[in-house]
Amino acid sequence: MKILIMGGTRYFGRRLVHKLLETNHEVTVLSRGNVQDDFGPRVERLKAHRGDEVAMGAALAGRSFDVVVDQVCMTAKDAELSVKLFLGKISYYLMTSTMSVYDWGANLPESAFEAKAYQPRKATNPAEAYAEGKRAAEHVFAIQAAFPVSFARFPVVVGEDDYTERLLGQVRAIKNGDEIYYPNVEAEFSFITSEDAARALLWLLENRKTGPYNFAAADAFALKDLIQKIENITGKSAKLLTQENTSKWSPFGIPSSWYMNVDKAAREGFAASLHERWLVPLLQSYFLRL
């Protein structure tokens, strides 16, 4: 297949490109060109800013693809541009979405957020602005796209190649004796590895799945258990604040349980690796890097 990856030069987008090359797909990567890649001559590279309609139009002029994988669709405007630019030029579109489309809750199924029924909310902080952007983008595709679309909804993605260093930062903070604030250490949470995220995207596009799919490790756990694992590895006790402190707020600090139900994907043949298989080795690897 001819596949366009938008934003595929790092993290699990990069992993996806390598998997596509291994299975002999014809891959084109569109990015701003700011990140050096290791794809070699088998990949065609296009340069454009995702939100620049003129630059995107010029880069994609005269081109058609079987599949588009959009790693960087963040807003309704981004989605509207894709609906316009790819009309009649593709047969399938895959948007990387997020667990953030859901409100707080445990074992959330895909039906907990219906993209077609989306009603805008006023964002009061950057996290909510991000969630609103993703909700609105899904909504645009759901009601406007003339081509089949799927939404890959991921929780926090972690791995050795995680450039955000959110989980690494928790290991560093506990190792260094820095204070951390969690609103609720009893809250349950889940992750997915960057390898499994790439596998999930490959599974969706090769099987032409449509609609929303949740992907995460199925064994959600309480955040206190994550803290305990880090304490065991570092040999240090976490300095947990009991009073709210925005400057010390953990990136995983949530007021109540928040994780997805992944039964739909499992029934249809995809399962991410359980936390018990990789979380401690990953934390140990992070510790050795510090």
**How would you describe the shape?**
globular
Gyration radius over CA:
19 Å
Q: Output mean pLDDT.
A: 94
Named at the architecture level, the CATH assignment of the largest domain is: 3-Layer(aba) Sandwich
Strand order of the largest sheet: 3-2-1-4-5-7-12
Low-confidence stretches: none
DSSP strand content:
15-25%
H/I helix tally: 9
Helix content, binned percent: 25-40%
Which structural class matches the secondary elements? Answer: alpha/beta
Termini separation comes to 42 Å
CATH class of the largest domain: Alpha Beta
- The quaternary state of the protein chains shown equals single chain
The CATH superfamily of the largest domain is known as NAD(P)-binding Rossmann-like Domain
Question: Can you give a write-up of this model?
Answer:
This protein has 290 residues and is of the alpha/beta class. The protein has 2 domains: 179 residues, 3-Layer(aba) Sandwich (Rossmann fold); 87 residues, UDP-galactose 4-epimerase, domain 1, CATH 3.90.25. It contains 9 helices and 15 strands. The chain has a 7-stranded parallel sheet, sandwiched between helices. It has a two-stranded parallel sheet with strand order 6-15. Strands 8-11 form a two-stranded parallel sheet. Strand 1, helix 1 and strand 2 form a beta-alpha-beta unit. Helix 1 packs across helix 6. The radius of gyration is 19 Å and the shape is globular.
